[in-house]
Write a structure and sequence with these properties.
CATH architecture of the largest domain: Orthogonal Bundle
Order of helices and strands: HHHHEEHHHHHHHHHHHHHHHH
Number of strands: 2
Number of helices: 20
Helix content: 55-70%
Shape: flat
CATH topology of the largest domain: MetI-like fold
Strand content: under 5%
Number of domains: 2
Distance between the termini: 29 Å
Oligomer: single chain
Radius of gyration: 31 Å
Structural class: mainly alpha
Largest sheet: 2 strands, antiparallel
CATH class of the largest domain: Mainly Alpha
Length: 486
């Protein structure tokens, strides 16, 4: 088995990397004058094979790239290493012309963005250049073997025929590049600069600092505070993601089983009530709940009237002199309340999903287990939960990643309510109840500390990717879904 896996890996590497460059080398070495001419003028290989229109189009693309390189890319790439050296100056009156003039200056942010776009264009063109060279060599080989060669019209018909899926995917691919990949590259690049409120373009320049921001985050002492705050926020983020995902998942299953049990009446009514809870916008619900559990809110008043506040004093849950229960102002109380409120907000949605999954649960396996003497708990643990995990596994992983980035619940419940008492957290503009994503938001919106926010954004991305990869590989391992196929 191990040998087969090694052979597959070797075969994959052979077909994906070595084969790609070996074919390129063959085109350069064995190509005729037309192929070698494509190294200088990209359309030569097509023009020599009488594919005039394709040759002209490819040559125009090359010409457009050269013009783009000269007039767009090179001016920004020449400054990309320093991100600019000429600082901004206020407009001044020219004594000769008596006009207010703005002297040229560098904008580090624009240089960074356009520099990354320029590098991306260069990489894309190099791939296109290599593909064009291999296409020219393929035309040569086809001619030598006497095989027919597609005309431009035939290629166009294929793009609208049996290769139409490639044509349809082109627009979404461009959208992903513009809306996801390029912004992500900019985010990564900012993490290696000193871009903050002291270096804010266009009034000031920022520059590259290498891995200093990562060193401050991971190796920072209490004086730097970022390392101290990062450890606390990271632990709470992971704990929150686990608890929020697990409680809503299990709670939704149990609630669905309870409503669907034979002894429960008015099943549709119960489901409708929970659907109504989902229909209310989440931010409205969270803001109302935040007001309910405020220090002087209605829930504290109820607890005081019922004697719950006195009981909490006796149990040591609040200080003896406390006049309220700090539901959202004490770090321990707040974390517990955030998880409980999230259960209340998230369980109805999970209940609906679990209801649909349980309707298709393997009734024959459950009946067989019941005949063999299995208890309800054993059926639940050995059949129901494994089946739900197989069906809902991908959604469960998505929920975990979403909870890592669950901005609404944390921010709306704690903003302008919870105030940290920890000087180390305060200096880092963080709170004990912050997730990495809400800390990132505070750093950008309140402190304009974009460099550290970018570092945290990269950490969040890495955590999400690593967990998703490990979870998918382990959850889907062994093909367990085949055990439940009808």
């Amino acid at each position: 088995m191990a040998e087969e896996v090694k052979k597959k890996k070797k075969s994959f590497a052979e077909t994906s990397f070595a084969w790609y460059f070996r074919e390129l080398g063959e085109a350069v070495v064995r190509g005729d004058w037309a192929v070698k001419g494509s190294l200088l003028v990209m359309g030569t290989g097509f023009l020599a094979r009488k594919q005039i229109l394709k040759g002209i189009l490819v040559t125009l693309v090359q010409l457009a790239y050269i013009l783009c390189l000269i007039f767009y890319s090179l001016p920004y790439l020449s400054k990309f290493g320093t991100l600019g050296t000429v600082e901004y100056q206020d407009p001044k009156l020219n004594p000769l012309t008596f006009e207010v003039e703005q002297f040229p200056y560098d904008n580090s942010f624009l240089i960074l963005i356009h520099g990354i776009v320029s590098i991306f264009i260069i990489v894309v063109f190099l791939l296109f250049y290599i593909h064009n060279l291999k296409q020219a060599y393929a035309l040569q080989c086809a001619k030598e073997k006497g095989k027919p060669v597609n005309s431009f019209r035939q290629d166009l018909q294929q793009m609208l025929g049996n290769k139409f899926h490639l044509t349809l995917l082109s627009l979404p691919t461009i959208g992903v590049v513009l809306m996801n990949i390029l912004p992500l590259l900019v985010l990564i690049a900012i993490a290696f600069t000193n871009y903050d409120k002291l270096h804010m373009p266009p009034g000031a320049l920022f520059t590259w600092v290498g891995g200093q921001n990562f060193a401050d985050l991971f190796g920072g002492s209490l004086s730097l505070t970022f390392g101290y705050a990062f450890g606390k926020v990271l632990v709470w983020t992971l704990l929150w993601a686990v608890m929020a995902t697990f409680t809503c998942f299990i709670g939704g299953i149990l609630l669905a089983m309870l409503i669907n049990s034979p002894g429960v009446k008015f099943k549709k009514t119960w489901r409708t009530l929970f659907v109504i809870a989902i229909a209310v916008p989440q931010f409205v619900t969270l803001i109302l709940v935040r007001n309910f559990f405020a220090d002087q809110g209605i829930f504290n008043q109820i607890c005081q009237d019922l004697g719950i506040l006195d009981l909490c004093r006796k149990l040591g849950l609040v200080s003896p002199s406390a006049s309220f229960i700090p539901f959202l102002t004490d770090k321990n109380w707040t974390k517990v309340m955030i998880i409980l409120i999230n259960i209340w907000v998230g369980i109805p949605y999970q209940m609906l999903i679990a209801t649909g999954v349980l309707m298709n649960a393997p009734k024959d396996q459950m009946e067989s287990a019941r005949i063999d003497g299995a208890s309800k708990w054993q059926i639940f643990r050995k059949i129901t939960i494994p089946y739900i995990l197989v069906v809902q596994g991908p959604a469960l992983i998505t929920d975990f990643v979403r909870n890592i980035n669950n901005f609404n619940v944390i921010y709306l419940l704690t903003q302008d309510v919870y105030i940290t008492q920890d000087p180390g957290m305060y200096k880092s503009n963080a709170k004990e109840v912050d997730l990495l994503v809400t800390w990132l938001f505070r750093l950008t919106q309140e402190e304009q500390n974009y460099k550290m926010a970018s570092v945290i954004g990269i950490i969040v991305f890495i955590i999400s990717v690593v967990f998703t990869f490990i979870s998918y590989s382990r959850l889907m391992k062994g093909g367990r879904e085949e055990d439940y196929q009808i």
